[in-house]
# Entry
Amino acid sequence: MDIKICGLSTEDTVAAALNGGATHVGFIFFPRSPRHVAPQQAAALSGAAKGRAQVVAVTVDADDATLDTLVRVVEPDMLQLHGEETPERVRAVKQRFGLPVMKAQAISNLADLTAAQRFAGVADRLLFDAKAPKGAVLPGGNGVAFDWTLLAGLDASLPYMLSGGLNASNVGDAVARTNPSGLDISSGVERTPGIKDVALIESFFAAIRSATQRAA
Ligand SMILES: O=C(O)c1ccccc1N[C@@H]1O[C@H](COP(=O)(O)O)[C@@H](O)[C@H]1O
# Structure
């Protein structure tokens, strides 16, 4: 199972993610987020991940000029589009940059899952996240889970990562209920918003290990 630790901003937490077995490390490029990093900072941090994990640049309705800079400076392996991007926009981004795209879809009901099917054959992967609470500043990273039972019977024509409110206490249950091809976590391994914690990252990986051992 792929595991993405998202919203990293320090060397020690990038190292903890990689040592724990992260297959993806995510950097947030959204100025309103407490996890926002400058492209040069992400480029420096992601050096440690080269050859060990995929570097994911997370953006929200970013324009071409912003993406041009990110792709040039950070050289990510994948773009995560976490805004209101349409299938046409996803197609255009893939064509312009030649990079795989993971499209986030906010989920609060079955209609949202149906809407996600618009990206079949367009995005390389989906990321199911909870719909942001009313008044939230961020479209993701709010530490809120959605009703995982909505995923039962999902036509899994697209691989997806499960995200939204995951932490060491609930990840075992999440895996048992949804059997996703990937997991994505941000605020569940933080001490305070934007401040990742090495011990919480280690606990998260330990919880995944015991969940997968139980399932085997
Ligand atoms: O984390 C952020 O600040 C963020 C900002 C803008 C778009 C996406 C963001 N994070 C993504 O949100 C999900 C879930 O986060 P959490 O575990 O519930 O805190 C994760 O995919 C991040 O990539």
